[in-house]
Amino acid sequence: MKKKYLHENKDQILPGFLKSKHFGFTNTESWRVLRIQSEFVEGFETLSKVGPCISIFGSARTKPDNEFYKAAERTASLLVKRGLGVITGGGPGIMEAANKGALEAGGLSIGCSIELPQEQKPNDYQNISLEFHYFFVRKLMFIKYSIGYIIFPGGFGTLDELFEALTLSQTDKIKHFPLVLFGSPFWKEFSGWIDRTLLERFHTIDSCDKELYTIIDDPEEAVDYIMKKVRF
Length: 232
Description:
The protein is globular and about 50 Å long. Helix 2 packs parallel to helix 7 (219-229). It is α/β, with parallel strands linked by helices. The chain has 7 helices and 7 strands, in the order αβαβαββαβαβαβα. It starts with 28 loop residues before the first helix and ends with a helix. The protein is 43% helix and 13% strand. It has a single domain (51-229), classed as Rossmann fold (3-Layer(aba) Sandwich), CATH 3.40.50.450. Helix 6 (184-201) links the parallel strand 6 (179-182) and strand 7 (214-216). It has a 7-stranded parallel beta sheet, sandwiched between helices.
């Protein structure tokens, strides 16, 4: 079944020449500013009260019988047993696995979900739940309230979170927190492409940028790596 990528969304960002003079207030720029502000206020107010957390990312399409679902669940469980909370995108798949592992281990399980026309539905394993309309506000919450990332196999959204963290670390806009790419079968070719294309062929990154992330295949090893790098 062919997907429909165009859907009615009265808060879409439209070029100025497409905007109607007859839009109501909820389609004005002033209204958008207020809505954005409210999401920042709610996120800051809620998450400023929690302790140190690790964000876990990955595909919403990963099923419970998948090896990466089970690994994400185990990883989250180990993290909370070491005194850390877990933040995810709040949806199904890897996000659900991480929230489940954290909650069932008796720890802090946070979900920052996003309004989407498909796929995203908040999972049932959260003791703090936030919902966002704007991706950039949600991404700021992950960066601001995490002291490390563990990134499982995923799609465009997962890669977006990864490259946001890499860019901010590379440019010293945030502290260089530990960034784990979990699952070498998924990330090996990606890392190879970075080496061959960005580093060696086109010289668009420096060799030291390769140190911004590491690839790990084991939950215990991933958590040990995080614990050696973080201070809290």
